[in-house]
Amino acid sequence: MLTSDDWGSYGREVPKDKHLTGKIIHPTD
User: Fold this and answer.
1) What is the pLDDT along the chain (29 residues), one digit of tens a residue?
2) Which residues does UniProt assign to the signal peptide (predicted)?
3) pTM (predicted TM-score)
4) What's the rounded Cα separation, in Å, for the pair 1 and 17?
């Protein structure tokens, strides 16, 4: 699993639609 820092970087690097998909798989909220 990604650390919170890795996930934060990932969220900034990918397009918004990809980020939303990612949050379904690995929600941080």
Assistant:
1) 556 676 666 656 665 666 566 666 666 65
2) none
3) 0.19
4) 20
